[in-house]
């Protein structure tokens, strides 16, 4: 049971930044000038998390949610070149229910952007390059606050198991 739990957690967090997603609720006023600068990470959450792992013909459904706390993380978007970096730390509280058993674990997180390239295309803020590029929808942006959303819906193979995962991730940055 512990292996299945760890497999589900690994799958959920491996997929956080594994693919590109578009969301139709984005803003129309996003500009590169509104993004450039130093931001504080002030909120991070995963909602509606669901996964189904098929291992040797056995289906293991899982639900999960996550919320960040104890934020001490700075995210910097530079202009030339367009690089995003982060430094500092935060804690993620992950609640997972597998086969009726609910558990909550805390994980220390740090430096989730490690000198990735960034670019803006309409209301989508992309991180990384090429096949590794991930798109977050900008839900709101002002001089002092930026809200980002990433919708995950993926299926992948890990350790001989097929896992389908879906969730909505929200991030808030403030100046």
* Beta strands, count: 9
Whole-number mean pLDDT: 85
Q: Shape from CA axes?
A: globular
Number of helices: 2
Computed structural class: mainly beta
- In which order are the strands of the major sheet placed? 1-2-3-5-6-7-8-9
Portion of residues in helices? under 10%
Taking pLDDT < 50 over at least 5 consecutive residues as the criterion, the unreliable ranges are: 1-23
Order of helices and strands: HHEEEEEEEEE
The biggest beta sheet is recorded as: 8 strands, antiparallel, barrel
What is Rg? 17 Å
Which strand-content bin applies to the residues? over 45%
Measured distance between first and last alpha carbons = 43 Å
Question: How would you concisely characterize the structure shown here?
Answer:
This protein is mainly β.
Helix/strand layout:
Blueprint: H1 2-14, H2 32-35, E1 37-55, E2 58-77, E3 83-98, E4 101-110, E5 116-121, E6 124-127, E7 134-141, E8 145-158, E9 161-174
Question: What would you say this structure looks like, in words?
Answer:
A hairpin with a 6-residue loop joins strand 6 and strand 7. The radius of gyration is 17 Å and the shape is globular. The N terminus is likely disordered. It has 175 residues and is mainly beta. It has an 8-stranded antiparallel beta barrel with strand order 1-2-3-5-6-7-8-9.
């Amino acid at each position: 049971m512990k292996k299945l739990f760890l497999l589900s957690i690994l799958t959920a967090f491996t997929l956080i930044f594994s693919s590109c997603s578009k969301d139709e609720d984005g803003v129309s006023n996003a500009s590169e000038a509104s993004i450039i600068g130093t931001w504080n990470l002030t909120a991070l959450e995963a909602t509606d998390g669901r996964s189904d792992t098929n291992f040797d013909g056995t289906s293991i459904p899982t639900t999960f949610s996550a919320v960040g706390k104890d934020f001490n993380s700075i995210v910097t978007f530079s202009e030339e070149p367009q690089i995003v970096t982060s430094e500092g730390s935060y804690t993620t509280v992950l609640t997972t229910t597998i086969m009726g058993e609910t558990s909550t674990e805390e994980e220390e997180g740090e430096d989730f952007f490690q000198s990735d390239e960034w670019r803006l295309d309409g209301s989508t803020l992309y991180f990384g390059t090429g096949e590794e590029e991930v798109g977050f929808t900008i839900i709101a942006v002002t001089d002092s606050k930026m809200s980002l959303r990433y919708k995950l819906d993926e299926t992948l193979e890990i350790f001989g198991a097929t896992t389908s995962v879906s969730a909505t991730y929200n991030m808030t940055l403030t100046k």
